[in-house]
Design a protein that fits this description.
MciZ, about 45 residues, 2 strands, PadR family transcriptional regulator, about 20% strand
């Protein structure tokens, strides 16, 4: 399972069940994809 967070998008690479699991996990933490991207930018 790989997750690439870029400036304009998030790319998940893996098996379908892995992607579903991770999306459900991240849905609990972030309400939008933009929030997810912004937090990753601030960590760098």
């Amino acid at each position: 399972m790989k997750i690439y967070v870029q400036e304009q998008r998030v790319t998940l690479v893996g098996k379908a069940w892995q992607i579903n699991y991770m999306l459900k996990k991240y849905m609990k933490k972030y309400t939008t994809v933009q929030e997810w991207i912004d937090e990753q930018k601030s960590k760098c």
